Structure formats: C-alpha cells, structure tokens
Amino acid sequence: MALSEISDKKNKTKKKLHQRKGFYILLGFLVGIVVIASLYQTSVYFSTNESCMICHVHPHATDSWKLSTHVNNGSGVMTNCVDCHLPPKENTWEHYTAKAALGLRDVWGYLTKDSADFDWDRKSELEYAVKYIPNESCVKCHQNLFPEGVTDDAVTAHLYYEENAEKLDLQCISCHLDAGHYNPNYVHGKMTGIPTAANQVLDTGKFYKEPAIVTRFENFIEQIPGTAVSFKMVAIKGGKFNMGSPEKEPFHKPDESPVHEVTLSPFFMAEVETTWDEYWAFYTQTMSEGRTPPEVVYENNLKALDVDAISGPTPPFGFPDQGWGSDDRPAITMTHYAAEVFCQWLSKKTGKKYRLPTEAEWEYAARGGTQSPYFFSGNPKQFSDHGFLRNIFKPKTDSISSYVIYAKNSNNRTQPPSAVLPNPFGLKNMLGNVMEYCADKYDPEAYGKLAGATNPLVTQGEEWVVRGGNYTSDAADVRCAARDHTRHDEWLKTDPQQPKSIWWYSDIKGIGFRVVCEPDPSILK
Question: Mind listing the pLDDT tens digit of every residue in the chain (525 residues)?
C-alpha cells in the first residue's frame, strides 16, 4: 500500500475519533443540562407547600398555618413553609444543605414514626420552634420593624429587640410564636427590661425623683426625673476668643474667615454627645404623631419655657442605630427639629434651660482654651489623607487617634465616649464621631458681620450649622474651625414616607448633637 493511502487512512480515522469525541462531549453536556434541570425542578417541587404537607400531617401544617397572619392577612401576601423554615438565601450551599438535612429528617420521621404518638403541644413551644426557624428568614421579610400603624408598645419592644437581640440571644419568634401558626391561647411574649410603654414592670426605685440641684457654677450630674438616666454637664466659664481660622492654616476654607473676636457668657455643656440612653428616654415618654409644628418648637426654645405636653418622635424607619449598639453611643440620624424638641423636653423635665449650643459656644468649647487647629498638638497636613505626598507616605495617626474618632480609627461607625480622651475643658468627642447640630443658621459670610459680638446667634439662612466632623471625616475636616451645614433634602432623599419625616433622616448616619444649659444668674454672682 502506498504511503499516501496509509496517510489518508490515518487522517480519516483521526477525523472519526474527533467526531465521536465531540458527539460524546455534546451528549454529556446535554445530559448534564437535563440532570441539572431535573434536580432544580425536583428542588422547586419539594419547596412547595403541598410537598411539605406530604410528611407534615400535624395540624400546624394545615389548619393553624392557614389561619395565621402569614396567610390570613389583609395584604394578600402568603408566606410559604420554606420562607420560614429554611435560610433565606436561595441558590447557596447553606440553603441547599439545610433543605437536604431537613428533608431527610422529615422523610425518615414519616416512614418510621407514628404521628399519633407526637406531643404536639410540646412541639408548639418556643424551645422546639427556634430549632426550625432561622431568624434571618424573619428579618428578610420584616426589614422595617416600624411600619405605619404600629402601636407605641410595639415600637418600644422592637427598639429593645434591636438593642439587645445579640446580647440576650433574642429572636423574632421569641415574641411572635403565633405568627406562622395560629394559636388562640397564645399570649404575646414580653421581653425583660422593656421600658414602661411595653407594659413591663420596672424597678422604679432606680428612677430619679428630682433633677439635679445646681447652686454653684461647677460641673454637675443632671438627673432626668422619671427615668434612670443621668449625664455629666461641664461648667464653661466663658470669655473672649478668636473665632475662625487664619488663611495660612492648612485646609482653611473661606467660610472660616475672617478671624474675629467673640465674647461669651458662662454656660454648661454636656461632657459627651447626647446618648441613645438619653434619647430613648425622651422617645418612650413622648412618642407621638408629631403634632407640634417645627416653628412652634423653635419659638418655645427661644423664650422662657412654659408649654404643655410635648409631642415626641414618630417611629423611625429602619434601624436608627445602624446595628452598631446604643447605650452610651451617640444618638444619630435625628433631624435638627428632633434635637430641638429633645431640648424642650429636657428643659421641662429638669426645670432648667437646655438648648443646642450656638456655633460660637461650640467652637469655644471645642478649642478648650487653645488657638491651634486642634486642641492637641499636630499639623493637619501630617494627619490628613489629602495631598500629593499621601500617594507615597501614610499620614500620621498617633496623637490624633487618642482624641478624635475619624476615618482612620472609627471602623466605619460611631464609638462610645470611652474610646477617646477629653479636651482641656473635659469634653469628649468634640471633634469627630458625629457631626453636632448648632442653634445657628448657616451663613458662609457670617464671620464678616460678627466682629466684636457678644453671644452671637445667626438666625437667617436655609440650613443649620453642624460642627466637628464625624467618623467618616478626614483629619482636615475635624479641625476646631472647620464648618459644615445640614443638607435637609439630600438627607431625606430615600425616605419612603409621604410626607417625609420631620424626625428622622434616612440618608445621613454621622449626625447627632450635644446640649448646653444656661446657668441661673444667681449662681454667677
């Protein structure tokens, strides 16, 4: 046989082998698709309510489930078995392994056990139920714990849940055991420690009966009557200082000049930003539908306080503390109006004159008697991420991190007062952590009009002054002279409510406030 014929024969054989190999690959691919599709369809089928009822013949799978609020509700939305009993992230390893384990257990029980022997009452108890209902499945559907129409007691209970869920190992089903399976004899759960609005019996012996009595101009601990909340107020002697920053100061901005002398009367200022403990005390005692118009609240805070009942915040949308924790962390996301109402409430509770600080008082207190960019030593250029050299060298973080919660040390969240050292006046977190509301309207040219002023207050403008920077700020923006202002519409952009809330911001986290107290003239003599 000629060599050419042998070569042709080999080529034909190779071609047939390649064709056969391609056929098998294609066939395997098609079979794989069919198998995957079949498994998926099988998985879908065994996720239906009907498939669950094959094994679950007890009443909870039929009668009580259909009577529960998860099925029998006004919204028309039906919650299926797998929505509650499997992890919520479908098409994940966790979801499918949980489904397989639960399914195998159900089949084994159906084949080997007699349902007539089951203790259905015991299986209806919380201890048993928590094993089969992942809490994240509840959270997936109920992301907003404060929907329209929720009762005051429910708001307070849900706030308590947010603050204590991890610490006390609380789950949604701890209180809502009857939500998925109706039980006419079930009593809604109550959690230990919820404030009185949730009808919980508290140890009122720990409540303050009277506010602090102040007879001298010195630091004191304020006590809020009717609560167990107290906080420290620091005596600030007042005096003259140069407000603003010189043009040569690194990162100086035009609205920080001209530097001008200001004279301030003595005042008390809170050692720390208003905490969640303080704000929730206000919330639980005043929660309402917000009946007091903002203009009335502002007018009341500008004159001697003699008002009747104070209307407090409506329920927040979502998680106002962002899940970072509450207690002595700064209260955040409230509007300037809400901060003003808090001051009005605090004044009424204590009989003193509490309010937001003026911008001049705030800067005077923040400086702590210094005139440098910060109340501690250091050049803003050394601490800031701004500038060409930061592409090569990292900024310094020593010294500033001891006094300021900012972008470099915050872990992208607020921190409690214990995380920093005080300034020379004994005030904590004046710089960083959260921006703080002032009583002034924002005017970029205000400093040119206030030279030599005594106790200045700017009342003209659209937005409010905020000071101090927050946990996301660069070191350049936490200087004592750095100014900023509210962005009301922008901070409410994603608020789903109509009309939008006058109490809570939806699009700003690092905003809070601290209070000042005007001393009685008699103690200054």
Answer: 554 555 555 555 655 656 666 666 776 667 767 665 565 555 555 667 666 766 666 666 666 767 777 777 666 677 777 666 767 666 666 666 766 666 667 666 667 776 666 665 556 665 566 667 777 777 777 767 777 666 766 776 677 666 666 654 567 776 676 666 766 655 554 433 334 333 334 456 788 999 999 999 999 999 999 999 999 999 999 999 999 999 999 999 999 999 999 999 999 999 999 999 999 999 888 875 444 555 565 565 555 444 456 778 877 766 677 778 778 999 999 999 999 999 999 999 999 999 999 999 999 999 999 999 999 999 999 999 987 777 778 889 889 999 999 999 999 999 999 999 999 999 999 999 999 999 999 999 999 998 899 999 999 999 999 999 999 999 999 999 999 999 999 999 888 777 888 999 988 999 999 999 999 999 997
Q: Is 157 helix (H, G, I), strand (E, B) or coil?
A: helix
Is the pTM above the cut of 0.85? no
- Residues 264, 262: Cα–Cα separation, whole Å: 7
* Cα torsion 485, 490, 492, 494: sign: negative
**Residue 378 and residue 234 in one domain:** yes
CA distance 171 to 158: 11
In the chain, the number of structural domains is 2
Tell the burial category of 31 from Cβ atoms under 10 Å away from its Cβ (0-12, 13-18, 19+). Answer: exposed
Last residue of a domain, one of 198, 230, 246: 198
Check which CATH number belongs to the domain holding 231 and give it. Answer: 3.90.1580.10
Beta strands in 249-344 (DSSP E): 260-264, 267-270
In which domain, by residue range, is 165 found? 49-198
What is the DSSP code (8-state) at residue 477? G
For 272, other C-beta atoms within 10 Å of its C-beta total 23
**What is the rounded distance in angstroms from the CA atom of residue 425 to the CA atom of residue 152?**
40
Are 247 and 172 in a shared domain?
A: no
User: Do residues 97 and 241 both lie within one domain?
Assistant: no
CA dihedral sign, ordered 431, 433, 439, 445: positive
The DSSP line for 162-225 is: HHHHHHHT--GGGT-TTSSS--TT------TT--GGGT----GGGSBSSPPP--SSS-EEEE-B
Same domain, 166 and 230: no
Report DSSP state, residue 235: E
Q: Does 23 map to a domain?
A: no
- For tokens 């070569």, the residue is 7
